[in-house]
Structures are given as structure tokens and as C-alpha cells.
Design a protein that fits this description.
It is a single chain. This protein is α+β, with helices and mostly antiparallel strands. It has one domain. About 35% of the residues lie in helices and about 15% in strands. It is built from five helices and seven strands, in the order ααβββαβββααβ. The strands form two sheets. It has a five-stranded antiparallel sheet, covered by helices on one side. Strands 2-7 form a two-stranded antiparallel ribbon.
Length: about 180
């Protein structure tokens, strides 16, 4: 085999390990040690979605909103369905692991462009409540109170990878303005 072919296979293996290792580690800690990763930030039990990660099989991502005057353009459709069970579980794990803002913090949030992403996870038995991402400071609604994405830019890459968007980051999900000077 050509050398570049082996290099590509090795890169693929390492890429898969980088994306699945956090999920496996979290599952191990939660299951075998009964450690709650949210214990420092909340005394509430883990949400059903976070407790159900090993069963998740589908994710639908819907982009809504956007202020009309912004005329934003995106490199991906407004609705994307992810059916790769491992990718769905990686996104759910990353979502459940996002930090919680402590109430004593002072924050200054950027202006709001109106873009929201609605994430709907499901398995063979049920559809879980919608989790909403976006808005000033990147707060998340519908999962763990006070979670946000601002301190975790890698989350957007994880979501984009699951959606089939190469090299995705927060800017990918913010869109590009079509307004020219």
C-alpha cells in the first residue's frame, strides 16, 4: 500500500479515538465509580437526556431565527438529521459536559443576531425535550440550568463534525453576512 494511504488510516484512527474517548471515559466514570460530573455545580440529578446517552441514536438540528437585516448565509441546510449513533452520543456527551455559569459571575454578552439551534435527540423508544443553543453568551435552554457554550468553543466543532460539516467552529454556526459595503 502507498505510504499516504497508511497515514490516512492512522489519522482516521486517531480522529475516532479523539472523538470517542471522552464519551467512553464519561460512561466509565458515571457507571463504575458513580461519579456525577455536575456535582460541583449542581445538586440536581442529571437530566434524563444525559442519563440516556448510551441509548441515543438520532439527532435533529434545526436553525431558527436570524434578524432579517443581517442577511446571513450558511454552508449547511437549516435542518440536518444525524443518524450515526456514535456521533449522536458524542454530541450529547459534549452538551451534557458544558460548564454551568455560577450566579456570582459578572458577564458582558455580545449582541444577539437572533440565531438559535434546536437540538432534538431520540432513541428507539422516545424523543427527548428540545435543547436550544444560541443567543447572547451562548446560554443553553432545556438541559442543565445555567449551561453555556462560550467557554467551550470545541463544542461547535463536535456538533459540526456530527452534522458532516468539515472544520466547523462557532463562526460556521454564526453564518456569513451577505451585506457588502
Amino acid at each position: 500500500m502507498p505510504e499516504s494511504s497508511n497515514g490516512g488510516k492512522i489519522d482516521g484512527v486517531f480522529s475516532l479515538l479523539r472523538r470517542t474517548l471522552p464519551l467512553l471515559l464519561a460512561a466509565f466514570l458515571l457507571e463504575s465509580c458513580s461519579i456525577n460530573p455536575f456535582a460541583k455545580t449542581s445538586s440536581a440529578p442529571l437530566p434524563l437526556l444525559c442519563r440516556s446517552i448510551p441509548t441515543l441514536s438520532h439527532l435533529t438540528v434545526v436553525r431558527t431565527g436570524g434578524l432579517p437585516g443581517n442577511r446571513l448565509q450558511f454552508t449547511f441546510p437549516a435542518k440536518v438529521t444525524v443518524s450515526d449513533q456514535i456521533e449522536v452520543q458524542i454530541v450529547a456527551n459534549a452538551l451534557c459536559a458544558l460548564p454551568v455559569v455560577r450566579s456570582h459571575r459578572t458577564m458582558s454578552c455580545p449582541s444577539n443576531d437572533g440565531i438559535r439551534y434546536l437540538l432534538t435527540f431520540s432513541n428507539n423508544d422516545q424523543t427527548f425535550p428540545v435543547v436550544t443553543l444560541g443567543g447572547p453568551c451562548g446560554f443553553i435552554h432545556g438541559l442543565i440550568k445555567g449551561q453555556w457554550t462560550t467557554q467551550s468553543p470545541a463544542f461547535w466543532h463536535t456538533l459540526g463534525t456530527a452534522m458532516g460539516i468539515k472544520g466547523a467552529n462557532l463562526l460556521t454556526f454564526d453564518g456569513q453576512s451577505t451585506i457588502t459595503s
